[in-house]
Specification:
heterotrimer; B: alpha+beta; FAD/NAD(P)-binding domain; 8-stranded mixed beta sheet; 7-stranded mixed beta sheet; 13 helices; C: alpha/beta; Rossmann fold; 28% helix; elongated
Chain lengths: 249, 545, 312
């Protein structure tokens, strides 16, 4: 089985997010960029499936600037077999990302595609579902447990208020939630070896997809500052405020 | 224990200016040599913190076309002010009165972290293998007591030492020569210094703690290239230290405050000194309509010439601030760090060319260094810092200034650093409590909100990397005798004395707050705290510090 | 006339509250709103839905292939029905997030997730970077697909005396779909931390694990709240790891967050600052937690908490 794992290069989850001075975007100058944590989980799951003998090849794919090669090399160091970068300097919308991934899926014919449920930059939570629609494949989103028996994939997924278990026959799409696994660390010798693993770069314009954004960003602003609260002087006053002013109890 | 082994000609610990310069020089001299650099930061530059006003003398020799190659060295020093502060006033020292090392014309204001990122690109281009996120946690020796490389730390161990699901054992990196470029108070460097008695013929090292913030200020007040240093308030006359304020690019200003760690009063709190410094009437206006964007801290060497240890050991050498080449009155060390690294690289290359077995010691390196500008300038300023320790701010500055101004250091005496910094700490009953003003949330802040801006990543479920030699000493001795100064000298709030239900005090270590400044390893009066590396990739993620 | 199709979330007991929040958003965009309910158990919810003011039509489809909120077939149906509608909405719950992007892709439309403010009929605000920034987006597509952040809109409550007509759909377009195996909904007596409406969080000032049990637990029971803890409290062993709220723990945004004996380290604040109402109880009037609290009460938590339990 061939598995395709999509990974995105995002601002590191431990970096502080700051809106730039003209409120058109997030400050990325001097900011560390890393693999989207949900995508690390996606890759880890693929690696585990390979270790169980259930997968033969893992391809990591990213769509982004030339520097996204670093993220792909990280994926290769973690154990992916080869990498594809669809190079673009544009900030593409999830629909376009899904269309580009669809093109690559048709070429590579993976049986399973695993993606993070969302990227921690735009928090869109769309790409996996959209790709599933374009491929007309079943989708198991927000996965917290994956088991594969022959062609049959069983996925436990996190839904509001509990867990749901679904199954599908390959091919299909899985998007990962936080509890699916704990990603491994790259081993130093593997980082060396990753340098010689194949990494193909494809220009985004060559795939026949219209990359033009359909949405226009008017502004990006920091969230409003919380208005200053008040001190109450007794438990009675607190209960009164919570009941009648805030109306939360 | 068997570890996976990788073999290199040269292994370098630390991707700071020294480590990167050594690697670049080696590859320039012999492109086929295999060189690797390990760094405990998640990324190159993540643990680099410096002022920094940069003198390009070493870089001019290492990469002469640095400008064409786009080095992030763009802001020329345009204004240079020295101020003496009292609590309410500021006096500018006329520049004609200042000794030459205190002049900054021709220098640049840079982010050393960004310079390291650029240097790492240059090194990678030359074929150096650079591994950020891997902490060298152990020196490896052969049975002849020679250093044969280092081992990286295990990853994925739980707090109690057991292996987690993502456990990845460390690996051994074997090398013909190992260069330690850990920067000030490196944990492996210290173990080597002890093992090979490298400090036998040198004074104890003396240190300062630099606490730094980056602010985005009102564009109207921003003067790219402006440099300002202060001495005096808020420190008392007996405590060495001072501030710097550098105007970088993009409306950013770096503000730093250095406190000499030979301070005596255990109640002194370098973090609070830094915070209240910003409230001085001469300083405050710059930060009023401004936003603090970054925070960090790092110890620095102040021992200079007298404190340089023996630089070589069987199988390798100490380079850069792991040894300690900071020029105190100049407040610069990066150029010397780079220079020492280049000379060490040349010695390593020559030694490797001889192909001798066993490897010959690198004595050519200290020999070359003694002939170099590094020794020359450190020798010239050698008495500057000790005069201060002897005479205090007023007379110390005056005498040291005259010595430097009139004789350029050509005096027959060399003053010593008699004791380790920790040994100068007075007992609590001999000192008076210092009452610091409360953080105002505008200019001054508390530790928690400051540490937040250091972007620390530290998996809390790992063994604590701050070891107590004797776990009882903290409460039995340090707490009653010195009023637990670790609560105050730590700029990250790692150490807290907590009173349990029964009111008994207990030392709580918030290891996940650690910004890797190494002050606890230096200043604990009972020499009880040992700083070791946590899991690779942990610690601060400094942007452009 | 701008028409709107809202995919309702419901179960056999009726409409889920998220649907009513989404309806409030829908009413800001259109006065011709159709609610779509799918699955074999949708009748009861459909009857309920038809009674809400602002609902023009209700469509239900009882076919078994739409049971359990499985995305593939529901998306196919919704895409089939989309033609006359300007807006396609769903709540940004795991139900809506699972289905709506799939609809959007079938229609080749760029979708906007987690709309938290509607500025005009084609301008929307959405949180990005985990709420650390708000992005304002203009959407000039002829058809617009939006998921609605339910906590940003109040629940529609107004009923009408003339219920909307209910159409029963019979078409059931199908896609290659997952098969439902089973579902376990949490029956825990305490809600889960990340989805709780109320959170009671304790800090190191509680001084012991016992106090977590004897002081916080009864209060949490009273308010049907989840229990959270600061890093310091977890570190000290007063509370288990999975209760940690903060930058390195869980990020929560309940309706009501009561911080008890928490000093308010910024790492903790980062994990709960988006809570709707924050109450802080602490004996130190200078504690940083008071800066972000809507209601602060200075005093000894050992007296305050029992009094609170008694009087609630």
């Amino acid at each position: 089985m061939k598995i395709l794992v999509a990974v995105k290069r995002v601002i590191d989850p431990y970096a502080k997010i700051r809106v730039n001075a003209d409120q058109t975007g997030i400050e990325t100058h001097n900011v560390k960029l890393s693999m989207n944590p949900f995508d690390e989980i996606a890759l880890e799951e693929a690696l585990r499936l390979k270790e169980q003998g259930l997968a033969s090849e893992i391809i990591v794919i990213s769509i982004g600037p030339i520097q996204a090669q670093e993220t792909l090399r990280q994926g290769l160091a973690l154990g992916a077999d080869r990498a594809i970068l669809i190079q673009t300097d544009q900030d593409l919308e999830p629909l376009v990302i899904a269309q580009l991934l669809n093109r690559i899926s048709l070429r590579e014919a993976p049986q399973l595609i695993i993606l993070g449920k969302q990227a921690i930059d735009n928090d869109a939570n769309q790409t996996g579902q959209m790709l599933a629609a374009l491929l007309n494949w079943p989708q198991a989103t927000f996965a917290s447990k994956v088991t594969i028996d022959q062609q049959r994939v069983t996925v436990e997924r996190e839904i509001d208020g509990g867990l749901q278990t679904l199954a599908f026959d390959l091919p299909g799409i899985i998007t990962t939630d936080l509890r699916l696994n704990t990603p491994r660390f790259a081993k130093l010798p593997n980082i060396m070896k990753a340098k010689s693993k194949p990494l193909e770069i494809i220009a985004s314009e060559t795939l026949g997809i219209d990359l033009t954004p359909r949405l226009t960003t008017l502004s990006i602003k920091p969230p409003p500052i919380r208005p200053k609260g008040i001190l109450v002087h007794s438990v009675d006053e607190l209960i009164d405020k919570l009941r009648f002013e805030a109306k939360v109890i | 224990m068997t570890r996976e082994i990788m073999v290199y000609d040269v292994v370098i610990v630390g991707a700071g200016p020294a480590g990167l310069s050594a690697a670049i020089r080696l590859k320039q001299l012999a492109p086929t040599r295999s060189v690797c650099i390990l760094d405990k930061g998640a990324d190159i530059g993540a643990h680099i913190l410096s002022g920094a006003v940069f003198e390009t003398s070493a870089l001019d020799k290492l990469i002469p076309d640095w400008q064409a190659r786009g080095a992030p060295i763009r802001v020329n020093v345009t204004e240079d002010h020295w101020l003496f502060l009292s609590a309410t006033n500021a006096w500018r020292v006329p520049s004609w009165l200042l000794p030459k090392p205190l002049h900054n014309a021709g220098n640049y204001i840079i982010s050393l972290a960004n310079l390291c990122r650029w240097l790492s690109e240059q090194a990678t281009e030359l074929g150096v293998d650079i591994y950020p996120g891997f902490a060298a946690s152990e020196i490896l020796y052969n049975d002849q007591n020679q250093v044969i490389g280092v081992a990286t730390g295990d990853m994925g161990r739980a707090k109690n030492g057991t292996e987690k699901s993502n456990f990845t054992p460390g690996i051994a990196l074997h090398a013909s020569y190992t260069l330690l470029a850990e920067g000030c108070r490196g944990s492996l460097t210290e173990s080597l210094i002890t093992r090979f008695q490298l400090r036998k013929d040198a004074c104890p090292q003396t240190y300062g703690l630099g606490i730094k913030e980056i602010w985005e200020i009102d564009p109207a007040l921003h003067r790219p290239g402006k440099v300002m240093h202060t001495a005096g308030w808020p420190l008392d006359n007996q405590t060495y230290g001072g501030s710097f304020i550098y105007h970088l690019e993009q409306n950013q200003v770096a503000i730093g405050f250095v406190t000499g760690l030979d301070y005596q009063n255990p109640y002194l709190d370098p973090f609070c000194e830094m915070q209240r410094f910003k409230t001085h009437p001469a300083i405050k206006p710059l930060f009023l309509n401004a936003k603090r964007v970054s925070y960090g801290a790092r110890a620095l060497n102040e021992g200079g010439y007298q404190s340089i240890p023996t630089l070589v050991f069987p199988g390798g050498a100490l380079i850069g601030c792991a040894a300690g080449f900071l020029n105190v009155p100049k407040i610069k060390g990066s150029h010397n760090a780079m220079k020492s690294a280049m000379l060490a690289a040349e010695a390593v290359n020559n030694a490797l060319s001889l192909n001798a077995n066993p490897r010959i010691p690198l004595h050519a390196y200290p020999a070359a260094l003694k002939q170099s500008s590094v020794y020359q300038e450190l020798h010239q300023v050698r008495n500057f810092r000790p005069w201060f320790s002897k005479l205090g701010l007023f007379w110390g500055t005056l005498v040291a200034g005259f010595e430097l101004k009139l004789f350029q250091g050509r005096v027959p005496w060399t003053l010593k650093h008699p004791r380790e910094d920790r040994a100068r700490t007075l007992k609590a009953h001999q000192a008076s409590v210092i009452h610091y003003p409360k953080a105002d949330g505008v200019l001054s802040f508390d530790r928690a909100s400051s540490v937040y801006l250091a972007n620390i990543r530290h998996d809390e479920n790992q063994p604590v990397h701050l070891h107590l030699r004797n776990p009882n000493l903290a409460i039995d001795v340090c707490y009653p005798d010195y009023a637990a100064p670790e609560q105050r000298y730590c700029p990250a709030g790692v150490y807290e004395i907590i009173h349990d239900l029964n009111k008994a005090p207990r030392l709580h270590i918030n290891a996940a707050n650690c910004v890797h400044c190494k002050t606890c390893d230096i200043k604990d009066p009972t020499d009880n705290i040992v700083w070791t590396v946590p899991e690779g990739g942990c610690g601060p993620n400094y942007p452009n510090m | 006339m701008k028409t709107l199709l809202l995919l309702a979330e419901h179960d056999q007991h009726g409409l889920k509250p998220a649907t009513l929040n989404t309806l409030t958003a829908a009413k800001q965009l259109s006065n011709n709103i159709t609610l779509l309910l799918v699955g074999p158990d949708s009748e009861r919810a459909a009857t309920q839905a038809s009674a809400y003011q602002g609902v023009t039509n209700v469509m239900i489809n009882n076919h078994a292939c739409y049971d359990h909120g499985l995305a593939e077939n529901i998306a196919a149906l919704m895409a089939d029905l989309a033609q006359p509608f300007t807006y396609l909405l769903a709540p940004a719950t795991t139900f809506g997030k699972n289905i709506l992007p799939r609809v959007s892709a079938l229609l080749t439309i760029a979708m906007i997730s987690d709309v938290c403010e509607i500025i005009d009929d084609n301008t929307f605000v959405q949180p990005i970077y985990a709420g650390n920034a708000l992005k304002t987006v203009r959407n000039l597509q002829a058809k617009q697909v939006l998921s609605i952040r339910t906590s940003a809109f109040t629940a529609a409550g107004e009923l009408t005396s003339t219920p909307a007509p209910i159409d029963v759909l019979t078409q059931h377009p199908q896609a290659r779909a997952c098969t439902f195996i089973n579902q376990q909904l949490t029956v825990s007596t305490r809600p889960e931390l990340t989805s709780a409406r109320v959170i009671i969080a304790g800090g190191r000032a509680l001084q012991s694990a016992d106090n977590f049990d004897t002081l916080l637990a009864p209060l949490a029971t009273k308010l049907n709240a989840a229990i959270g803890a600061s890093r310091a409290a977890v570190d000290a062993g007063f509370a288990p790891n999975d209760q940690q709220v903060g930058q390195t723990g869980k990020i929560v945004a309940p309706e009501l967050y009561i911080a008890i004996g928490i000093s308010g380290a910024i790492q903790h604040l980062a994990g709960m600052k988006d809570s709707n109402v924050i109450v802080a109880i602490n004996c130190d009037p200078d504690a940083a937690i008071f800066h972000c609290a809507d209601y602060g009460l200075v005093g000894d938590l050992h007296q305050i908490v029992p009094e609170l339990i008694e009087k609630l």
